[in-house]
Specification:
Helices cover about 60% and strands about 0% of the residues. By secondary structure, the chain is mostly helical. Residues about 140-150 and about 250-260 have low confidence and may be disordered.
């Protein structure tokens, strides 16, 4: 019986000199940044097709366990890697880790294999189709005779989708996300998230961290069940996050230590916002 065809590798090149990506990671996160990058590459190498779908809850939990870092820190580092284009920004926008340079570095391993070297997964095509469907829904929602209304940005849609996935993870039978209603609900929630960014001046990075924290907290995961609720309870959420950090506690379902630095950043930003009112 022949060897099974696979799109994974047992090793990858580890060069002795590093570029700007590693320099920035170490400057900002120290040894955690160094460790995270190479553990991410290890997981890319051992994952079929050499991509990591972080939208899948099991895959995300495995990444957190492998890197031994808080979820908020992992999100920060991955967003930074996308900004530096060390991983694909387009794929990370839909919570998928894809690294073209990694594929190039392991291409030699596929030279004598029957199976082809992995190509970009089909997620982007699905994202384009989804955005086309969203555009059609917008046409139905906004009457032609009405003045144009602000539309959600791609970041607002992505974070609205993240909130929906986290809610479904906690409660798969959530009624507002069932029976074909999910896309319309995500679009509606994205308008509230857009207002959080555009009107309330909250960064998308901070909104993402609050969504992740709220859906891991035993109290707030039962109360933040929409984009409107997220915006309405924003002040209470950020205060509670800071209190949790000050008390050295962590959300019972998150399974990782809280990131005090991130919570300090949230509290500082919130204080500045209130002073500006």
């Amino acid at each position: 019986m022949g060897r099974p065809c696979k799109q994974t590798v047992d090793y990858f090149p580890h060069y002795c000199t590093h570029g700007k990506t590693m320099f920035i990671l170490e400057q900002r996160y120290g040894n955690d940044g160094y460790s995270f990058w190479f553990k991410l590459l290890e997981l890319l190498g051992s994952s079929e097709g050499h991509y990591i779908n972080c939208a899948d809850s099991t895959t995300w939990e495995f990444l957190l366990s492998k890197t031994r870092l808080p979820a908020t820190t992992c999100l920060e580092i991955l967003s930074l890697l996308a900004k530096l284009e060390a991983i694909s920004p387009d794929f990370w926008a839909i919570q998928v880790v894809w690294c073209s340079k990694f594929i190039a570095n392991v291409s030699e391993a596929y030279r004598n294999r029957i199976v082809e070297i992995p190509k970009q997964p089909d997620f982007l095509r699905q994202k384009v189709i989804y955005e086309m469907e969203v555009d059609e829904m917008r046409k139905d929602i906004v009457p032609k005779d009405d003045p144009p209304k602000p539309l959600s940005s791609s970041d607002s849609l992505r974070l609205s989708g993240l909130l929906a996935e986290k809610i479904l993870l906690n409660n798969p039978s959530n009624r507002s996300l069932q029976n074909g209603m999910k896309k319309a609900t995500v679009l509606k929630w994205s308008l509230s998230i857009d207002k959080l960014n555009r009107i309330d001046k909250q960064s998308f990075e901070m909104i993402e961290a609050v969504i992740v924290w709220s859906q891991a907290d035993t109290f707030w995961k039962n109360n933040i069940l929409s984009g409107d609720a997220l915006r309405k309870q924003w002040d209470k959420l950020t205060v509670q996050m800071q209190t949790t950090a000050d008390n050295g506690k962590r959300p019972a379902t998150l399974g990782v230590k809280t990131d005090n630095a991130l919570f300090d950043e949230i509290a500082t930003a919130e204080a500045k916002r209130r002073m500006a009112l």
